[in-house]
Amino acid sequence: MHSKIPTSVPTLEPIFRALTGLYLVLTPDLVIVDATDALLQQTHVKRDEIIGQHVFHIFPNNPDNPQVDSEGSVHQSLQHVLVHKEPHNLEMLRYDIPTENGFEERYWNTTTIPIMNEFGEVQYLVHEVRDITDKVLIDRVHQLRQEQLNLLTNATKAVAWEYDIVNNRMTWGEGLQEVLGYTPEEMGPGGESWDSRVHPDDFEEVQRSIQQALASKQSTWKGEYRFQKADGSYAYILDQGYTAYDSKGNPIRTIGSIIDITQNRDTQEALRESDARFRHLLEVLPHMAWTASPKGKVLFFNDNWYSYTGMRPGQTDGWISAVHPEDSAMVLTSWHNAVASGSSFEIEYRIRHHIDGSYRWFLDRGLPMRDSDGNITLWIGTFTDIDDQKNQGDYREDDRLESILRLAPVHLCMLHGPDHVCQYVTPGVYKLYGNRNYIGRSARELWPELESLGFFDLLHEVYTKGRTVYINEFRTQIDDELNGKLRDAYINFKYQPLFDSTSCVEGIIISAIEVTSLVRARQRAEALAKGES
Fold first, then answer.
1. Distance between CA 101 and CA 107 in Å, rounded?
2. What are the pLDDT digits (tens) for 61-84?
């Protein structure tokens, strides 16, 4: 007897939910439509609690780990799919999962594909995630063990250790006796022997630091303290460790290494004295002065800066708010280009005086300091007041700047406030969007046709999250001669938040550069390679 083969189309909902993979179905507005049972189980949520909710409301960032912007990475990936209507993959993403006891550290590989309707519009997003937490943690352990091996190979005074937290069992490497003078038997098997040998004046701070790292589920810890050697003397040591946690977030094992840095203490003290002398030199300069990290983050302003701008002494974030709004986009672009290329930085712009609100012209010069290998270790710069010369006509920067902006390949647009009101555009923007009355109008007034592409959601995301977003190789049409004759082009866009003196976002800088020739060259190369195969 044969069973009858069904001829009707089955309801796909139970089939989808029973899939073994971890899947979410989202609307273009990122509202959850459905999820597989496997995903619900892995992420500790219930179906009736998440359907109809925004995905980032259900899966927010881990507030205990603010340096990891998981939500931003996923949002950028989803926006890529919506804009380009093509799948997008994130190879490895940390995205912690909320539980009853806080957040659980998890790592994922994600793929999002668009589901199109008959009009070629994105109707749904299918978001697949694969849990790779175990692989990532195992790779970390292997990496740390390799780093330990390299450390022990290169260091003359180092010892490796491993602590089984669950069983209170300490294991020491072969360098223990050479570095500290003890045998493993003399140290004992438990962690108590370590406690008793930390200098009494350092013990409380070291313990506090370790407990704080464990409470916040940090994977790495580092500390410097004094440790009693077998001969009764104390050595200054650098102790570094990596902690592994179980699936419930409980610490289970720590492995690390100890380096005797006693001989380096004099060198460190000399470096601190040198740094103090350097800062004193910057303070006595008659000009405003600054320093920045190799990556461009401002580290220091001298007192002259704070006296002139009125910023809170010691504050370094939000310095761009003291710059004239018409100059800020140009300043940021020039500074970022200098940091990227490692070349000297020189630019003239206006800075506001906090007492009367007036602006004076300054020449800002910055030079990179390099080590013996040519790597940048610090940026140093000064501001020279050139306002009198500018007013006397010795400088003709406006005409020169306009010429540069007309010929520059990068097009800039600066938007201000939550309504994204346009304050500044370069001439190249007219080639992209035509002759519109840009200044003083909101983004929605200027570009209503971009709403369907998620443009205003993107602006809202950059403004509210303070996060830079990139959209590369966006296909559009531009009017080079402003005569109505359009041509196809590919543009790389960058949306960057502009911060005020309180480190709050006050606007957005949009930069666009055409990459048509690069895209077409790559396409030709791919076509040739395909033909040869």
1. 18
2. 998 888 888 999 999 999 999 999
Q: How far is CA 443 from the centre of its chain?
A: 26
pLDDT at 2: 42
Q: Which is nearest to 383 in space by CA: 343, 424, 331?
A: 331
List the beta bridge partners of residue 351. Answer: 323, 360
- Mean of the per-residue pLDDT values of the chain: 83
Q: Which CATH architecture has domain 136-260?
A: 2-Layer Sandwich (3.30)
Q: What span, in angstroms and rounded, lies between the C-alpha atoms of 459 and 507? A: 10
Which tokens hold the place of 425? 């555009």
Going from the C-alpha of 246 to that of each of 73, 165, 300, 431, the distances in angstroms are: 25, 12, 42, 56
pLDDT tens, 107-159?
A: 999 999 999 988 889 999 999 999 888 777 766 755 655 555 455 444 446 78
Cα gap 65→103, rounded to integer Å: 10
Burial class (CB within 10 angstroms; exposed 0-12, middle 13-18, buried 19+) of 290: buried
CB 42 within 8 A of CB 139: no
CA-CA-CA-CA torsion for 373, 374, 379, 383, nearest 10 degrees?
A: 140
Q: What is the DSSP string of 225-272?
A: EEEE-TTS-EEEEEEEEEEEE-TTS-EEEEEEEEEE-GGGHHHHHHHH
In DSSP terms, which residues pair with 488 in a beta bridge? Answer: 477
Contact 476, 491 (CB under 8 A): yes
- Number of Cβ within a 10 Å radius of residue 234: 16
**Which residue ranges does the chain devote to CATH 3.30.450.20?**
12-131, 136-260, 270-407, 408-533
Query: Is the overall model pTM greater than 0.85, yes or no?
Result: no
Q: Are 404 and 412 in contact (CB under 8 A)?
A: no
| Average pLDDT of the segment spanning 208-223 | 90
- The second-level CATH assignment, the architecture, of 270-407 is 2-Layer Sandwich (3.30)
Q: Give me the residues paired with residue 476 across strands.
A: 489
* 408-533 topology per CATH: Beta-Lactamase (3.30.450)
Residues listed for the chain: 533
CATH fold, domain 12-131, is Beta-Lactamase (3.30.450)
